[in-house]
Amino acid sequence: MIKEDRLEKRNRLIVYKFYELHDIKRTRIDDVLIALEEEYFFLDQAYIYSLIFYNKTYNDMYSKLVKEKPKALSISVNDIYSNRIKK
Question: Is residue 87 situated within a structural domain?
Answer without folding.
Answer: no
